[in-house]
Amino acid sequence: MLLRGVLFFSVAAAPTGGTVAASTPTAPGTSALVRSDSLEHAGLADALGGIFSREKIATILSKLPPKSKIFGYDVGEYSGDDGMDVVLSAMRDDAPRRTIDVHFFINDGPGFRLLRTLTRRYVLEPIEVGFSIDHGVCHVTEKTGDYGWRITGYSAVGGNFRRSSEWTTERMRVGARVTGVGYERSYSYETLLAEEHYYGANTGKSFLRQRYYDLPVFPAALSLPDDMPTEAGDTTGLMISAGGSSWHGSDDCQLFVSARFDSSTVMFRVRVHDDRLLHHADPDSADHLDLWFDLSRRNRVRPDGTRQRYARRTEFGVRILMGDGGSHTPVVDLLGTDLVQRYGAQVDVRRVEIRDAYQTSEFVIRLPRALFEERGTLLAAGFVCAYHDVDHPANLRWVTVASTAREYVPGRPETFGRLHFVADPVHAYEWENIRAAALAAKLRRAGLLPLPSTRETTGRRDTPGR
User: Fold this and answer.
1) Greater model confidence, 54 or 19
2) Cβ contacts of residue 157 below 8 Å, gap of 6+?
3) 5, 167, 170, 327: least buried by Cβ within 10 Å?
């Protein structure tokens, strides 16, 4: 049978035949999956015959590998043009073991255009790879292990095919041992916002839930697409992690941060707006900007569900006391112990002048790349950028805190957000310019460009559109 939609069924709930409507997946972790028969190309034509003409369906079949077997499909709009698009899974007769191809077709007038082909792995059955097209996003679901699932959202809006979201779930592990702590994480590639939840896999008890920005750090020399998000921050109350009752809008205070790296440094660019700068000898009573890093790379929850304990020697902080905009100029202080002693001399902080920007300050903070490396490899780290805004000179304890982590608490690394390094964002985000790919396909057909080669990387095959 040919399955439509997200393909997760327990044996007890296995459908007896026909087309299954797209639906929300059942709870990930189901280990018993129904076996399904695949369809030949003629079966797909019959299944789609009630939606599209035979001629239009033929433009899909002509782009599939010969003798491939089709295991699932869905129909919906994910290209932003109100046309009904198609996504399907098909297995080539020469496919590597436990792999299946996912083909993305977009509605292109009289026919369909193959936009991308991505390879996914399955654990037991090909129908573990399933689909659901909803609200302009095509979700591809896959089983990643005994307890692991991943749902990746793709869209083709604005002339680019790209990942738009990702949701994962897994059991927390300590070495080879699987613990009773479950873990869920969602991430938006469009807003850079993440939410994670640690909970008892058997009890359902919530141990830790967080919302934060996971900041991508890109190569400094790389030219990025104009619509690729690079900056964490917001002008709404979602940025306020403390003192929200005294915050009166984006004119009060707002915060944005981005980062790049090169062969020797990691550079942070922070832009802060504050309607009034207040200076005081006590940092807790003065406006100041903090960047905190947790380099321990430990799980935020321990195997028994309690919150992680952190050693101060794995924390590194940069604090900028803002001054008052007049005689008191910004002052930089480095916070931490061991890491400050090792890397403090290599830190460089500079203020950038911004013309015609009232009460807005921009700082460039350069940190040594070695701070984030382990055996020469850049690794993700805990990170939060926070602005401590004293709201009124008559009450220096009346404070608003804007930060890139919604539950941020100073001195508590388990409440930080994160940063991660992206050396090749086009590949990491499975990004492709649709118009450029279409032009390249025409030039290949005309013999003006060589045929593309298939790139095999971490189980994902990336074939340009035709």
Assistant:
1) 54
2) 78, 79, 80, 136
3) 327
Provide the 10 A C-beta neighbour count for residue 409: 15
- What Å distances lie between residue 258 and 233, 291, 360, 409, CA to CA? 9, 12, 16, 21
Instruction: Express each pLDDT in 75-90 by its tens digit.
Output: 999 998 888 999 999 9
d(CA 343, CA 356): 35
Binned at pLDDT 50, 70 and 90, residue 27 comes out as: very low
3 state SS for the chain: CCEECCCCCCCCCCCCCCCCCCCCCCCCCCCCCCCCCCECHHHHHHHHCCCCCHHHHHHHHCCCCCCCEEEEEEEECCCCCCCCEEEEEEECCCCCCCEEEEEEEEEECCEEEEEEEEEEECCCCHHHCEEEEECCEEEEEEECCCCCEEEEEEECCCCEEEEEEEEEEEEEEECCEEEEEEEEEEEECCCCEEEEEEEECCCCCEEEEEEEEEEEEEECCCCCCCCCCCCEEECCHHHEEECHHHCCCCCCEEEEEEEEECCCEEEEEEEEEECCCCCCCCHHHCCEEEEEEECCCCCCECCCCCECCCCHHHEEEEEEECCCCCCCCCEEEEEECHHHHHHHHHCEEEEECCCCCCCEEEEEEEEEHHHHEECCEECCEEEEEEEEEEEECCEEEEEEEEECECCCCCCCHHHCEEEEECCCHHHHCCCEEHHHHHHHHHHHHCCCCCCCCCEEECCEEEEECC
For the segment 321-342, what is each residue's pLDDT rounded down to a tens digit?
999 888 899 999 999 989 999 9
Dump pLDDT digits (tens) for 173-185: 988 899 999 999 9
Q: Is the pLDDT of residue 388 over 80?
A: yes
pLDDT surpasses 90 at 350: yes
Per this entry, what is the length of the chain?
466
**Predicted structure pTM score:** 0.84
The whole-number pLDDT of residue 461 equals 38
